[in-house]
Amino acid sequence: MRNGILKVSHYINLMRFEGENFDHKMIVRGSLERLAPVLMTALVTAFALAPLLFEAEQPGTEVLHPVAVVIFSGLISSTLLDTFLTPVMFWLFGREDALRLMENKDAEAL
């Protein structure tokens, strides 16, 4: 959830502070600029889970292994969904709100 919020916030900041228009170019730019932090966070978490994922037969991991599998699967699915679904949803449903925010910015500048 945090990654999605940060990505949408980054789109709005691109429009507000860097003069980008609401178009495909801005969404691609914002998505690519947020891709490295999202992947880095996911990879570090995956590396932390690796011992629990690959040592399922070790004593004491009977409970931790299934939990690690669920967390790892959620990490992969949420990263993929955030990478592909958030930009599409913002493109489809965020135009009116983003433009309204830009109008408020222009009114505050006066």
Explain how this protein is built.
The protein has 110 residues and is mainly α. The chain has one domain (2-109). The chain is 85% helix and 0% strand. α1 packs antiparallel against α2 (24-54) and α1 runs parallel beside α3 (64-93). 13% of the residues are buried. The model has no long low-confidence stretch (mean pLDDT 90).
Q: Decide which structural class fits the backbone.
A: mainly alpha
Q: What is the percent of helical residues?
A: over 70%
Low-confidence stretches: none
Total strands: the figure is 0
The major pleated sheet works out as:
none
Radius of gyration using CA atoms only: 19 Å
End-to-end CA span: 35 Å
Write the layout of secondary structure elements.
Blueprint: H1 2-18, H2 24-54, H3 64-93, H4 95-109
Helix pairs in contact: 1-2, 1-3, 2-3
Keywords:
elongated; mainly alpha; 0% strand; 85% helix; 110 residues
